[in-house]
């Protein structure tokens, strides 16, 4: 079995690569996808209350709303309902149903500014974690802070950093989180009400039906990639099938490529420029728990609840209030009585092994804290599967303290293995779309352009 271009993975990056190749007249393309479905980390589950509202297990927001090409297409097609859920919110803790936020938000912002100051005064200062930064800040600023600020401001900072990458604040890199240039989002975040699946299908529909039927192979897991022959690349699958190709685009999530149990074995071993980034732990472990209820018994108009943790020790068994969480109030956006909790390492992985009852026991005290009346049991409980899934092994990459920066990781991946073996995927795209669905889309666009140039001979100088 052979093709001019083989794309490993049928998520957003793989589909966009194929679209652009086909549009440029490169039609001998195959997509090999391990799962029995396309979309990768874009999975939407319809609500039982109203199937036109979906819960997204992967991407949920259009980030970079001012420049996001997926959002622009959705607006043009008019088939995606969005809501800007960055309005009314409430900060909650185990002891306070509403933590006065006005004076802790300013302290959180000052802690971030403090990071900038520290490193501008001493650029050689080694990287530190967000937790270390907050301790240093409190030591220096203690005399200017109230008890309330000392207690809650670091926890608010922690909540934001842990909810972005799913990594605990004692591992989140200050340099990465606050000092990396070009990573601020351009525009707000738009919540997708009817499921990111529609956004994915908007892309998929650009592939001709004949291609979708005959050139996308589901249930094909690529196991080895051999690039020792300079004229072609050989792939073998777990079933022992052999595929040969002139160009291969690997869109397997970087976490699954670089882990201790990698999805792909390389012959020969990866070149030096990739070996370093593949050896680092860059796993982000964001997860979600979705609780659907019969009735809404919490404030209907609050978009999000920011729940602060009760202590700094995240080790051991999961228990309520041990980790911060951000709750998305679906009722405010969709009138469906559901709450979606974001989770982080190690809770996201632990939850995947818990029973539905154990999950409810974990979040029930938090639900009680935001309730305005008697609480009910959920009629449905869903959780994300990404962290123990060998095809993802986390949510997306998140550079940790002391690791290469995400732009260094992207820089190494964007060079590919060589001119024939390329990487696409959201983790290969630097800047504000890194790790995002539209970053995956941009990366597919980049790799298709590269291969088209090679085939047309324009890229020969880049060899
Ligand atoms: C919990 C969570 C929340 C998120 N929230 C957002 C958000 O709000 N907004 C946003 O923009 N992004 C978000 N993202 C990120 C977004 O979902 C991803 O960046 C994007 O979907 C990645 O697309 P991709 O094509 O790069 O990778 P994937 O979607 O992972 O596609 C890779 C494909 O490769 C396949 N594959 C893997 N190994 C093999 C193999 N050996 N052989 C064959 N096939 C293989 C996989 O099955 C998969 O289909 C979130 C992700 C998670 C997990």
Textual characterization of the structure:
This protein folds into 2 domains: 2-41 and 195-280 and 403-462, 3-Layer(bba) Sandwich (FAD/NAD(P)-binding domain), CATH 3.50.50; 87-187 and 286-385, Alpha-Beta Complex (Polyamine Oxidase, Chain A, domain 2), CATH 3.90.660.10. Helix 4 (130-141) runs antiparallel to helix 5 (147-165). The protein is globular. The strands form 5 sheets. Strands 1, 2, 9, 10, 11, 12, 13 and 21 form an 8-stranded mixed beta sheet that branches. A 6-stranded mixed beta sheet has the order 7-16-17-18-15-19, sandwiched between helices. Strands 5-8-6 form a 3-stranded antiparallel beta sheet, with no helix packed on it. The mean pLDDT is 95. Helix content is 35%, strand content 18%. Strand 11 (233-237) and strand 12 (242-250) form a beta hairpin. It contains 15 helices and 21 strands. With 463 residues, the chain is an alpha/beta fold. Flavin-adenine dinucleotide binds at residues 8-14, 32-35, 40-42, 58-61, 63, 221-222, 251-253, 256, 263-264, 286, 288, 384, 386, 391-392, 395-396, 425-426, 435-438, 440.
Keyword list:
463 residues; alpha/beta; FAD/NAD(P)-binding domain; Polyamine Oxidase, Chain A, domain 2; 2 domains; eight-stranded mixed sheet; 15 helices; 21 strands; binds flavin-adenine dinucleotide
């Amino acid at each position: 079995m052979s093709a001019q271009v083989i794309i490993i993975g049928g998520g957003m990056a793989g589909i966009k690569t194929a679209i652009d190749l086909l549009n440029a007249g490169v039609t001998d393309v195959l997509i090999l996808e391990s799962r029995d479905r396309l979309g990768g980390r874009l999975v939407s589950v319809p609500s039982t209350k109203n199937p036109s509202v979906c819960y997204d297990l992967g991407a949920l927001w259009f980030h970079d709303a001012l420049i996001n090409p997926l959002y622009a297409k959705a607006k043009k097609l008019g088939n995606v309902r969005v809501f800007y859920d960055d309005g009314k919110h409430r900060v909650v803790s185990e002891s306070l149903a509403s933590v006065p936020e006005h004076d802790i938000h300013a302290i959180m912002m000052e802690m971030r500014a403090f990071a900038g100051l520290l490193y501008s005064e001493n650029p050689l200062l080694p990287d530190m974690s967000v937790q270390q930064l907050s301790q240093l800040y409190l030591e220096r600023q203690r005399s200017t802070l109230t008890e309330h600020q000392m207690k809650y401001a670091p926890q608010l900072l922690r909540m934001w950093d842990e909810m972005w990458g799913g990594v605990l604040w004692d591992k989140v890199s200050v340099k990465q989180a606050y000092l990396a240039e070009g990573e601020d989002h351009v525009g707000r975040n738009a919540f997708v009400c009817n499921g990111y699946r529609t956004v994915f299908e908007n892309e998929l529909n650009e592939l001709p039906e004949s291609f979708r039927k005959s050139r996308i192979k589901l249930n094909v897991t690529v196991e080895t990639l051999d690039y020792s022959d300079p004229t072609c690349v050989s792939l073998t699958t777990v079933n022992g099938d052999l595929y040969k190709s002139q160009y291969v685009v690997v869109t397997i999530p970087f976490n699954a490529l670089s882990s201790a149990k990698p999805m792909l074995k390389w012959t020969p071993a990866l070149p030096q420029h990739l070996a370093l980034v593949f050896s680092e732990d860059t796993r982000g472990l964001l997860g979600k728990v979705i609780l659907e209820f019969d009735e809404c018994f919490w404030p209907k108009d609050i978009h999000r609840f920011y729940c602060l943790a009760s202590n700094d020790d995240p080790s051991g068994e999961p228990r309520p209030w041990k980790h911060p969480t951000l709750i998305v109030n679906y009722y405010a956006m969709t009138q469906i009585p559901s709450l979606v909790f974001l989770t982080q390492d190690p809770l996201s992985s632990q939850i995947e092994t818990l029973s539905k009852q154990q999950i409810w026991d974990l979040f029930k005290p938090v639900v009680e804290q935001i309730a305005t009346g008697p609480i009910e049991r959920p009629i449905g409980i869903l959780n994300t599967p990404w962290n123990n899934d060998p095809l993802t092994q986390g949510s997306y990459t998140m550079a940790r303290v002391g690791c290469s920066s995400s732009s260094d990781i992207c820089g190494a991946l964007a060079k590919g293995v060589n001119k024939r073996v390329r990487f696409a995927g959201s983790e290969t795209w630097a800047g504000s779309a890194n790790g995002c669905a539209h970053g995956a889309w941009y990366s597919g666009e980049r790799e298709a352009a590269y291969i088209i140039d090679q085939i047309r001979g324009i890229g020969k100088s880049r060899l």
